[in-house]
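A further point concerns the way the authors explain their paired sequence and structure data. An entry of this sort, consisting of the sequence and the corresponding backbone structure tokens, reads as follows:
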Amino acid sequence: MAVPATKVTAGKKANEARAELKVLELGEQARKNLNLVVKSVQPTDYWRTITIPGVVADRPGISDRGVTAPAVGVVSEIHVQPGDTVRPGQRLVTLRLFSEYLQATQTQLFKSTQEARLIQQQIGRLSDAANSGAIASSRLIELQNEVQRQQTLIQAAKQELLNRGLTPDHINGVTEGTFVSSIEIAAPPPRGDEAVLGGLVPPNSNGEGYQQKSSDGIAYEVHSLGVEVGRTVQAGDLIVSLANHQALFVIGHAFKREAGLLEQAAQNGMALKIDFAEDSSQLWPTYDQQFQIRHLSNTIDPASRTFDFFVPLLNQSRTYQKDGATFLVWRFRPGQRTRIEVPVEKFANVFVLPSEAVVRDGADAFVYRQNGDLFNQIPVHVLHEDRTQIVLANDRSITPRTFLAQNAAASLRRVLKAQSASGQQPGLHVHADGTVHAAH
């Protein structure tokens, strides 16, 4: 049976009407169910970025510090354990000296000190005789020269003992005959080289370095012990490894093809964005450091075929008390994975929306403009997108200060298709008499 031409034409027109539907209706409850967010949009500038993996690492020569044995000896006491926090000058290990050279140096210092005193006493007794001519003045000159030679020996011995870890009090005792048989190896003073830190932390009013700004004056954390009680150590052997993770590096691993972009970012001082894995931002204060590339590596790893670049990182810390001891917790830790976003291209005067604000249908992309309960579907031109944001051209398809849906675009697209399939124009309603009117 043939279908009348009028019915075919009517059906085609109905399909075309359904296909051309560009407005959907969404009530208040439906918007709540979608958790729909609508905001006014304004054109802005946007930097396209490349994402490079990285890792937090210690800064060589700054973050870690080794304490070595100043002389041959036997470890008699250990006063710290890994995880303990120490301040400058706090004792770490007691070392019983077993160095013939150190004992000989102490003996030389004592002998020279006593010899100088005896010669000074002799000069005092002969001064009057030399003045009266009873003895030759040349004798007095010889004694004075001998005092100078002894003073030279004394100064050299004192300096050698200082280099070996003895304190000025120890040395004063040696000059009186109290020889040192054991020494306390203490935590060294903190570094205060602002130039090495890259200007991250200026020294305080006393000229002291960044570690002094840590809580309660704590300068270091004991990272590891290289000895045990009763062990004989040689001069220069590592005894304790200390760590201070306040100044770190974020090391990015980039491929050679990205070298030009990274060089440009480093030369222009462009600000980077770094996402830290497993970072609990709600547990720490707001972090507002501006990240910039310090330098690029000029070697390529033969295994991964990547080269490194280095971004200074200033850490955050806090302390807690337990069993009468103070312990230190750092926000960022060496080995922590990161994601580094490096700006490489600028888009001027564009609209930037969350990725969920745009839905794609084949080659087309759409956003949704709110007008009460109605949402107009607007085709847009996508310039760039990443995992979180999408950049739209400012080509008059969107008017500044327009209210656009910021999420759930895919859901809105499905609702629009469902309403199109129903054949009823959104925004219209039917009266009891059968007449159709626009919403009012």
Notes: Residues 51-60+245-345 form a domain with the Elongation Factor Tu (Ef-tu); domain 3 fold (CATH 2.40.30.170). The CA atoms of residues 166 and 274 lie 46 Å apart. DSSP finds seven helices and 26 strands in the chain. Confidence is low (pLDDT under 50) at residues 193-215, 429-440.
